[in-house]
Amino acid sequence: MANPFVRAQYLLAAHNHRQLPPDGGFEVAFAGRSNAGKSSALNALCQQNALARVSKTPGRTQQLVYFALPPYEDRFLVDLPGYGFAKVPKDLQAHWQAFLDGWFGSRDALKGLVVVMDIRHPLKDYDRQMIGYAVNRGLPAHALLTKADKLGRGAAGNVLQAVRKELSGAYGDTVSVQTFSGESKLGVDEAREVVARWLEL
Ligand SMILES: Nc1nc2c(ncn2[C@@H]2O[C@H](COP(=O)(O)OP(=O)(O)OP(=O)(O)O)[C@@H](O)[C@H]2O)c(=O)[nH]1
Ligand SMILES: [Mg+2]
C-alpha cells in the first residue's frame, strides 16, 4: 500500500472547541502517557522526522494537535498531550480535562483511538481508562507497544501475548495490539494499515 500519510502536515493546536475543524470528517487520536512515544509514532507513520515534536521533557502543552492529510480536507491525525503529568496550574488542568472529556466523548469525526504504551510499562491505569472510554462510546482502539527495540525479540513477544490476551479477553475484536518501534520502524506498516482503514483512505 502506498503511504497515504507522507503528505501529512501540521494544521492547528486547539485548546478549546472553537479552534477545532468542523466535526464532519474522519479523525484518529493518538493517546498515551507522557514520553511513551506518541509523537515518534506519528512521525514514523508519516515517514517524517519532524512532523510532530519529539521531546525529552514531557508534558507541558495541553492542546489537541491536528495534522491534516492533503489532498483530503477532512482527514486528520490528532496528537493528544501525554497523560500522567500535572505540571500545570490547577485551573488550567480543570479546563483542559473538561475540553478533552467533551471532545473525546462526543466528537463524531473521531473514528478510532491509538494508545501508545512503552512496551516495558504497558497497560497503566490511564491506558486502561482511555481504552475503556473508547470502547464505551463504540470506537475501536489499537494499542502500540512501542520502544520494542529496547527489548529482545522473545521478551517483546511475551509482552505482546500477555497484553493481547488481556485486551481480547475484555474487548474481543474491538481492541487490537501490536509491537512497534519508531526507532527501528518495526510494525510501522501494520499500524498505518489500521489507521488508514479507520480514516477510510
Ligand atoms: N528507543 C526508542 N526510543 C523512542 C521510541 N519512540 C520514542 N522514543 C523516545 O522517547 C522519548 C519520548 O518520545 P516522544 O515521541 O516525544 O513521546 P510522546 O509520547 O510524544 O511524549 P509527550 O508528547 O511529551 O507526551 C524521546 O526521547 C524519543 O526519542 C522508540 O520506538 N524507541
Ligand atoms: Mg508528543
UniProtKB/TrEMBL annotation:
InterPro entries: G_ENGB_dom, GTP-bd, GTP-bd_ribosome_bio_YsxC, P-loop_NTPase. The keyword Lyase does not apply. GO terms for cellular component: cytosol. It comes from the Bacteria. GO terms for biological process: division septum assembly. Pfam families: MMR_HSR1. This is Probable GTP-binding protein EngB. It comes from Luteimonas cucumeris. The gene is engB.
